[in-house]
Design a protein that fits this description.
Chain lengths: ~180, ~90
């Protein structure tokens, strides 16, 4: 029997620290896309609340907290991050395991927003993109999900195959921002 | 150019994929005259001014009907294609 060694999506490309900003890999646990059946949004939200303690997020919002989040993931879709999905959710929504499909990174630090602003076209101003807000958008040429999880921290998700590219793009942007800081 | 996705709000044009004139919303009946089908499949206007077309917001997965002015590049109105279809407009 061949010994198989599981590698994480970033496989050593993270963590990175440049200037005041750091990027690290996040193990979010189980990722499940939850796509409610037609007209079942409310029932799903209640089931989610009962089973995992958080309502289904409105578009462009995320609910829950570290270790157990529900992130709006597109039209009629929520990504459940952390817990194994309760079987009751399956009554109201199609559940698909996505755990190995995404690379998840956390970008944090004083200038994290400036670094992200170099990579994505969304409006990241603190008054517009607040904690608990999320966006499906692009990061360089990659499809991404960006969620503001703290005052100065963001969770970035891209397809697993893009992990090395994301790490590279983050590094270049972090270096660019750091180079412009007064010493 | 920026387009307002009815779900995500104002976003950069890069996030959208252009499909073409919004004729797909007015599909003729199966037994319609051949001329109607020729129009539907092949014939397009190329207006200088107001036009309605379909854009796909790749990130949230919405089809958006964008009313815009080709001369000034002004985006006048955006709506979800699914809403328009359900209203039968």
């Amino acid at each position: 029997m061949v010994e198989l060694i599981a590698k994480t999506p970033f496989d050593g490309a993270l963590p990175l620290e440049v200037g005041t900003v750091s990027a690290s890999e996040v193990d979010t646990g189980v990722l499940t896309s939850v796509a409610p059946y037609k007209g079942k949004n409310k029932a799903l939200s209640e089931a989610l609340k009962g089973a995992h303690g958080m309502a289904a997020p409105a578009p462009n919002r995320a609910t829950g907290k570290e270790g157990s989040r529900a992130i709006w993931f597109g039209r009629e879709m929520v990504l459940l991050c952390g817990p194994e999905p309760d079987a009751k959710l399956g009554k109201h929504a199609a559940l698909t395991d996505q755990s190995d499909a995404w690379a998840v990174a956390r970008l944090e630090g004083e200038n994290a927003a400036q670094v992200l602003a170099r990579l994505t076209p969304i409006d990241l101003r603190p008054g517009v993109f607040k904690r608990g807000h999320t966006a499906r958008t692009e990061l360089q040429h990659m499809m991404a999900s960006i969620t503001r999880i703290g005052e100065r921290s963001y969770q970035i998700m891209v397809f697993r195959a893009f992990a090395q590219t994301l790490a590279h793009d983050l590094k270049i942007a972090m270096q660019g921002v750091a180079a412009r800081q007064p010493r | 150019m920026r387009i307002t996705c009815p779900i995500c709000g104002e976003r950069d044009r890069r996030e959208f994929y252009y499909q073409g004139a919004a004729v797909a919303l007015d599909r003729p009946e199966a037994d319609a005259e051949p001329e109607a089908w020729v129009d539907y499949v092949h014939v397009r206007d190329n207006p200088c001014g107001m036009t309605r077309d379909l854009w796909y917001h790749e990130h949230c997965g919405s089809w958006v009907v964008v009313t815009r002015n080709t001369a000034t590049h002004e985006v006048i109105e955006t709506a979800l294609a699914s809403d328009i279809k359900e209203q039968g407009a």
